[in-house]
């Protein structure tokens, strides 16, 4: 087999990992050493050597995006798309298993998967009898506790007093139990349940377990360092054949363990040899992704962590010499976005494809300024990860309509939309519906039918609710006849939901209507409404499929396993990265995890990595001065170009106390050119040229005097009629051109 083309160009260690198909195998290796490539090639090798059929290999990836990429890679190697693969994230694979055996845990095969929003609504109802002080014990904290329990495979019965918590006055366990039984009543489960239920089934139904153990001749797991306890239990149950440990191959890197906050246990790697006796371990040391400079910078940084397994990482590419890692200081987040976009534009103009750029942020809030700037400059981009599109309120409403359309028992969906648009359903009417539903032991939708029949509602709202109910009856018929795209369109139209947004005079209403149009467009890509809803529940990354010609904007967590020619890493400031909250909660251990995250970030880059930090950052409405991240000092000097940083630091010292956003940030943009970077004083010719053009009639903003209109201008100064402060003569460089 070694002569097959799919094994070309692999190094001896990689070949060993691919050809050791039988028995347990752990590949422990640093970033970019070809772990994922080994896994993919191993899959192809198993098929091409007739060891198994495509559906007899269980492959676990960490994101849907990774699953898609792997599916494509396998299709390329095989020369055709493979059908019926068990390839996906833990959650997607478990959802598929659970649909087959739902009755063993008291669900139907059509069970609903709740998202966080639904979970919160449900939890709110469930906790009512306990009268929890939600100021003291916020509900999302409670939800977090429940999720951690689920991550660890604990059902309410399994929680010992030692594992209990004081949270919610010690009622967390009881609330968890009530929450679980409510989910069952609703024929629903949350994300954590997908795993929890399947593990329970595998544990209690030996016949089912055996069926899967026989089915999966080979198991492949990527990013093994980030599996949590329940995922690990699931793997261990499946990875046996006739009492023997099966052919399980896990690949991972302890330095990239970044999900401990979600219950991941890096110890799972350390336990591998114990759990799977006779396990082989392969180490890969050549990095084929990044230049020597990028690797050197990343290695120097991660060396500051203690308790590492320790791995060697050598540049493996022939052309591994490249640029130094750039560190750039900027004034604020707007300047940061301008800086990154202008760098992207330059490279783009020189022929670098947009799909090869990534902006990797520590926290979701950071994306906004980049999105705005990218839109302004017309650079196509996509936000990868985190249900962005589907999270928008109007999309969630429309989805609730769809859910209720195919499942009249979906009470959460019913509650969300019964009064959207307004149908006069206040708390009293809702209470009435709930009482009726309880009495009838039926859903809210059926309670509504019953109440309409018995004239339980009066006046206008009776009429509107009758229309609401009638509309669902009509569209269900239409669904049968005309299919889901037509039916959903009609439902949103006839229910008055679209009309509600057309009537809405707020500036964001047109955009929302566009989103709804887009949603209906997306429906056509799916065979049935059920498939579409399943897709939404599972697909965490909102990126479109063939949108290669776009800059990717995403969180560092979402970038795991990916690679780009050029990577921008903004926001390297104390409090942002490392994140203040994480450090407050987790101390030194948390700093180490943040450092691993930084390591993941740098090692995504093939050729160019630029790290940015801003001198000021707005946290809510307040400006704060910020300190450069400690990680910047930890980068070894020999691999880093700090010219763009010293300019800012120096300028900041010279001009501290002044607030001059426009001049300052442009000064920093200018730092790209070495000439400007060396100048110590921002007030000079080059910079003056960067001051916004102040002409009579321009609307401007001044940090001290607020908004005003320029009524006179000459070189360097301007006379401005301020709205509040009256007419004043000020330095033009202190003015920003204000939007309308
Ligand atoms: P990460 O830890 O970031 O997930 P990884 O170990 O999974 O990284 P891969 O993504 O599999 O690494 O590989 C990194 C890059 O190196 C890919 O572009 C891959 O195609 C390339 N590569 C891997 N092995 C070789 C090889 N033997 N020769 C040339 N290129 C290789
Ligand atoms: Mg990988």
UniProtKB/TrEMBL annotation:
It holds the Pfam family UvrD-helicase. GO terms for biological process: recombinational repair. Keywords: ATP-binding, DNA-binding, Helicase, Hydrolase, Isomerase, Nucleotide-binding. GO terms for molecular function: 3'-5' DNA helicase activity; ATP binding; ATP hydrolysis activity; DNA binding. ATP binds at residues 29-36. Its EC number is 5.6.2.4. One of its GO terms (cellular component) is cytosol. InterPro entries: DExx_box_DNA_helicase_dom_sf (IPR013986), DNA_helicase_UvrD-like_C (IPR014017), DNA_helicase_UvrD/REP (IPR000212), P-loop_NTPase (IPR027417), UvrD-like_ATP-bd (IPR014016). It comes from the Bacteria. Gene3D superfamilies: 1.10.10.160, P-loop containing nucleotide triphosphate hydrolases, PCRA, domain 4. Residues 8-291 form the UvrD-like helicase ATP-binding domain. SUPFAM superfamilies: P-loop containing nucleoside triphosphate hydrolases. It catalyses: Couples ATP hydrolysis with the unwinding of duplex DNA by translocating in the 3'-5' direction; ATP + H2O = ADP + phosphate + H(+). Residues 292-561 form the UvrD-like helicase C-terminal domain. Has both ATPase and helicase activities. Unwinds DNA duplexes with 3' to 5' polarity with respect to the bound strand and initiates unwinding most effectively when a single-stranded region is present. Involved in the post-incision events of nucleotide excision repair and methyl-directed mismatch repair. Belongs to the helicase family. UvrD subfamily. This is DNA 3'-5' helicase.
